[in-house]
Amino acid sequence: MNTVATTNETVFTGRNKIHPHKFALYVACASIVMLFTAFTSAYIVRQASGNWLEFRLPDLFFVNTGVILLSSLTLQTSYWSFKRDKKEAYRGLLTLSFLLGLTFLVLQYKAWQSMAEIGVMLDGNPSGSFIYLISGVHAAHVLGGIAALFVALTHAFILPVKATPRRTLRFELVLIYWHFVGFLWLYLLGFFVVSAG
What we know:
Elements: E1 2-6, E2 9-13, H1 20-48, H2 59-83, H3 87-117, H4 126-158, H5 165-196
Antiparallel strand pairs: 1-2
């Protein structure tokens, strides 16, 4: 393994194409994919067993898709701004990404309230229970991403804006994870729509 040591950080070069932290994140994302694959498989099996309530998904689920996709776009642009030393754009777009992440969670909660208002309860028909479970576990992963965004936001306003290898890596880890939970939501919503049809 070839490494180049620098102050308080190690830059990986040579044959190592993937930083160990990125590799660990990819493994974690793969585990999350397997978890949701198991959930959706169980959903299909239970749906085929009968006693399945058909209902229309709340419109907020679709609104939330736009929110999380927009947050991915603003975070990506913030990253590019960080790399180009555009301090104001970097900080502003990172703040917007954080606020959009919080908005996603608030709207998700309101979507669950909308389900309850039409009689689809967590402890009711299995079809509703699965929607609550799957979207709820996804929201928990989004919450983890928001925590990472908060740390990134703290660094943005406390530390000097300088794209060092270590700072860049940290930002890339947050960016990869946030894009991941966004695309995961797209998959889940698509699955809900297709399975209901």
